[in-house]
Design goal:
The protein is an alpha+beta fold. The chain has one domain (3-111): Alpha-Beta Plaits (2-Layer Sandwich), CATH 3.30.70. It has 5 helices and 4 strands, in the order αβαβααβαβ. It has helices spanning 3-14, 45-49, 62-66, 70-78, 97-101; strands at 31-35, 56-59, 82-85, 107-111. The strands form 2 sheets. The protein has a two-stranded antiparallel sheet with strand order 1-4. It has a two-stranded antiparallel ribbon with strand order 2-3. Bound molecules: iron/sulfur cluster (2 copies). Residues 33, 49-52, 54, 92-98, 109 line the site of one iron/sulfur cluster (SF4).
């Protein structure tokens, strides 16, 4: 992806009216991003916009693939068998950029406290 395209994705996410900005700069780890692997199309927008390198897109784990319904399995396969994971979820500051950047609506922020 070109630098110009990445900049466009970042700007669009930062200006999105539905961005949950009220939680911006929350203490690290108080909110966690959760990816719906059945929706994710491995398009990398979350990797591009996250300022804290929370995401990576890689091959879906067999256990996660088995949880998908038949339609979702086809979808993931069509997208190279890849999906987004959150190896650095504890660095999430709840800025909301990934939530509004994801074209599939696959990311939600959930509170880590009961
Ligand atoms: S979670 Fe959304 S933004 Fe991230 S790779 Fe999947 S489709 Fe793309
Ligand atoms: S809310 Fe912000 S810091 Fe947290 S994962 Fe999404 S883009 Fe990264």
């Amino acid at each position: 992806m070109s630098d110009a395209k990445e900049l466009q994705i970042k700007r669009r996410a930062a200006a999105h009216p539905d961005r949950p900005g009220e939680r911006c700069n929350a203490p690290r780890g108080t909110w966690l991003p959760v990816v719906d692997h059945g929706r994710c199309e491995a398009k990398d927008d979350c990797v591009i916009v996250c300022p804290n390198d929370v995401f990576e897109v890689r091959r879906i784990e067999p256990a996660d693939f088995r949880k998908l319904n038949p339609f979702q399995r086809i979808k993931v396969t069509v997208h190279g068998g890849k999906t987004a994971y959150t190896p650095n979820a504890d660095q999430c500051a709840a800025c909301g950029l990934c939530v509004v950047a994801c074209p599939q609506g696959a990311i939600t922020l959930v509170s880590s406290t009961p």
